[in-house]
Amino acid sequence: MIGSHAQWGKSTPWEESIRVPFIIGRVGGSYNMRTGKTDAVINHVDIAPTSLGLCGIPIPEYMVGHDYSAHCIKSGDPEFKGLPKTGEEPDSAFLQQIPRKHHAHSVNRAWRGVIMRDGWKYVCTPGNDWLLFNTADDPYEQANYVYDGVYQKQKERLHERLARWIDETGDEFDMPDIGLDK
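The structure assignment produced for this chain is given below.
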């Protein structure tokens, strides 16, 4: 973080720490692969299936994660299985810091968060909602909307998606009560 948001460690939910480019290269560069960028949000569990897909190796059914290799493989390659189906790709990435980090100038709490393809990000500490940013409009995360009632519906959407991630992964994180309007 190098001091951004008064943080020095990398175990934080701000963009400087989590928005790491996932760059794939092949010998021969653009001559041997499709190039470009995507708005896909990738979790660490997506690296293995994507790597297998790039090699044309079938992905075991038990393996978690999404195969993003279709973004890179050219139509003439033997590994080609079709163009990317972005509508079938994950809508979000799950963010988490499980243990507390007892480092100076870092977040000294466990936290969970979600970043959506549309740029919205929501982060909680145990029993407390903490951050809500629209990184598409505010890439430097200067406006935290978590307690702004104008953004309650947006917060509820992200809260529900984060709760699903927590449930899907078997996490036992203590989600806050944000007064969901039903």
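Interim note for the steering committee: Residues 152-168 form the longest helix (17 residues). The two ends are 38 Å apart (CA to CA).
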